[in-house]
TrEMBL record:
This is Fatty acid CoA ligase FadD32. Belongs to the ATP-dependent AMP-binding enzyme family. GO terms for biological process: Actinobacterium-type cell wall biogenesis; fatty acid biosynthetic process. InterPro entries: AMP-bd_C_sf, AMP-dep_synth/lig_dom, ANL_N_sf, FAAL/FAAC. Residues 20-419 form the AMP-dependent synthetase/ligase domain. The keyword Lipid metabolism applies. GO terms for molecular function: adenylyltransferase activity; ligase activity. GO terms for cellular component: plasma membrane. Keywords: Fatty acid metabolism, Ligase, Lipid metabolism. It comes from the Bacteria.
């Protein structure tokens, strides 16, 4: 495909822009946090630009009394306004923020210990409500004691007079730890220039209106998509942003749509499962109170996008004013800060059927959506302000449109590398094209590890290289096998399956594990019957003989902190025999 020249992107650090907006629009609303823990209807807290600026300066002053610029500072706090203040305070202090979470977040203890140990922060930022939990985490684990624990909501106004120092685009802003879907979490080194550039690029994708458009988000601030969309986007042009706690969304998903209904010219985003969750749980009575006509963008990213999800979501909420073109499939990753490509805003998303056998051979052959071998893929659009190529991972030569290869990225948003991992950084962040076309930089390129193809000007993501299953010389995408398993029997929980390869007897075989559906009574569930149905469906659809199928208890499938299927962890647990297997009902 043709690779156009990159536009000039303003890399002015976003923390510098905070000071600018505090002077130009001191009393305008900057951020709104809606807290559902104190009020089921949502308690609203607003911060103006000047208030945010003063509070962030106070945090910076407190930090600089204990640590020097360039040192790591961990944020151990729940999702709240003080988290945003802490994040920008670390930036003002010219320290390296490590956005994490409160130690009492269920199911994340192992990840927190691993990431905290890797980052080795000198200081900790937290809030008074969880200070005991932070102290307990530090006391019971073999981690160095921080020089200081700064309680953000206890700081006085005196420190707000602290004068910020110059922050340069190439200074490190924060470490974004990956979710660890195919490896242990690694700290991605995000510079201030990366953060600013990607926020500008994301604005270009959203096509928002400066000073007018509003973002409404529930995504966790310790994940890349949440951090950039909640903290980064408002600072580009001084637009207001609204956010809530992810737990509030999970507990009552319609809250997200209710917040969106309050605004005109509003954008939002979330992973595929969130839209499936809304479709399945929002009642007809709740829909009558929604007005989604002001939502310009429902971005769908961070995990594989299902065509059926978008179709069902539109069908469920078109009556609430939602438009087809508001659905914007996107592709991104932490190593590129977050955003890489997104579909066009002037038309509904594109779904294309490709011949599955062709994809297995590395060639995209369009076919009819009802063909027996059809694999439906969602187009993730094109990049804005960065180069994206599909490259042969072995020869490092760019592939032609319609050919499957590894997705490579080049642009001002590509991170500096991984914290403390120079060899992996050199391998993945310093790639060089073997035969660059005219006008295409030879390097450095980011090797994403994702497989994809270009078709009709759009990027289609097909899977991960490390997850690819090769049996009898044929490539199989695990998500295809998983989808077949989930639709083979009602007792298999939708989207809660993992396919992977295991080696034995000098051959490689395929194993699928899947959680059982809670809605199917255990008394009438026969694991052997379910296994037979899954085996037959996979054999018929993919010509693959399963070495094993295991039905798990609900909650038993290993997943990452961002709810992605952790296939490598699934494989380890299967081989170790530690999976919670569903047993035949007795009695």
């Amino acid at each position: 495909m043709t690779v156009p020249a990159l536009p000039d992107i303003d890399r002015t650090p976003l923390i510098t822009r905070l000071g600018r907006w505090a002077k130009e629009y001191p009393d305008d609303r900057a951020y709104t946090f809606v807290d559902y823990t104190t009020d089921v209807e949502g308690a609203v807290t607003d911060l103006t630009w000047s208030e945010l600026d003063r509070r962030a300066r106070a945090v910076a002053a407190a930090l600089r009394r204990a640590c020097q610029p360039g040192r790591r500072v961990a944020i151990l706090a729940p999702q709240c306004m003080d988290y945003v203040v802490a994040f920008f305070g670390a930036m003002y202090a010219r320290t390296i923020g490590v956005p994490l979470f409160s130690p009492d977040l269920p199911g994340h203890a192992e990840r927190l210990l691993a990431v905290y140990t890797d980052a080795d922060p000198e200081c900790v930022l937290t809030v008074s409500a969880v200070l005991p939990q932070v102290e307990a985490f530090l006391d019971r684990n073999p981690v160095p004691r921080p020089k200081q624990i700064v309680v953000v909501d206890d700081l006085g106004a005196d420190d707000a007079e602290w004068t910020p120092e110059e922050v340069r685009p190439d200074d490190v802003a924060y470490l974004q730890y990956t979710s660890g879907s195919t490896r242990t979490p690694a700290g991605v080194i995000i510079t201030h220039g990366n953060f600013a550039a990607n926020a500008v690029q994301l604005w270009g994708a959203f096509d928002g209106t400066p000073r007018t458009s509003t973002g409404v988000m529930w995504l966790p601030l310790f994940h890349d998509m949440g951090l950039v969309s909640v903290c980064g986007l408002p600072l580009v042009y001084g637009n207001p942003g609204t956010f809530m706690d992810p737990v509030a969304f999970i507990m009552r998903p319609v809250r997200w749509l209710e917040l969106l209904s309050r605004y005109r010219d509003v954008f939002t985003g979330g992973p595929n499962f969130a839209y499936e969750y809304l479709t399945a749980t929002v009642t007809e009575e709740e829909k009558r109170g929604l007005d989604l006509s002001g939502v310009s963008v429902f971005m769908n990213g961070a995990e594989p996008i299902r065509p059926s999800t978008m179709e069902d979501f539109l069908a469920a909420f078109a009556g609430c004013g939602m438009t087809p073109q508001s659905q914007v499939p996107a592709y991104g990753l932490a190593e590129a800060t977050v955003y890489v490509t997104a579909s066009r805003r002037d038309r509904p998303p594109t779904t294309t059927a490709f011949d599955r056998e062709g994809l297995e051979q590395g060639v995209a052959r369009p076919c009819g959506p009802d063909d027996e071998n059809a694999s439906l893929l969602v187009g993730c659009g094109a990049p804005w302000g960065q180069h994206v190529l599909v490259v042969d991972p072995e020869t490092c030569v760019a592939r032609q449109d319609g050919q499957v290869g590894e997705i490579w990225v080049h642009g001002p948003n590509v991170a500096d590398g991984y914290w403390g991992r120079p060899e992996t950084t050199a391998e993945l962040f310093r790639a060089v094209l073997a035969e660059p076309a005219e006008g295409v930089p030879a390097g450095p390129w980011l090797r994403t590890g994702d497989l994809g193809l270009w078709h009709d000007g759009e990027l289609y993501v097909t899977g991960r290289i490390k997850d690819l299953i090769i049996v009898d010389g044929r490539n199989h995408y695990p998500q295809d096998l998983e989808y077949t398993a989930c639709t083979a029997h009602e007792a298999v929980r939708h989207d809660y399956a993992a396919a992977f390869a295991v080696t034995g007897d000098d051959t490689e075989g395929v194993v699928i594990i899947a959680e059982r559906n809670r809605r199917v009574p255990v008394a009438r569930l026969d694991p052997a019957e379910v296994a037979a149905a899954v085996r037959a469906a996979v054999q018929l659809r993919h010509d693959v003989h399963l070495r094993d199928f295991v039905l798990l208890e609900p909650g038993g499938l290993p997943r990452t902190s961002s709810a992605k299927v952790a296939r490598s962890a699934c494989r380890r647990a299967y081989l170790d025999g530690t999976l919670p297997v569903t047993r035949p009902h007795q009695g």
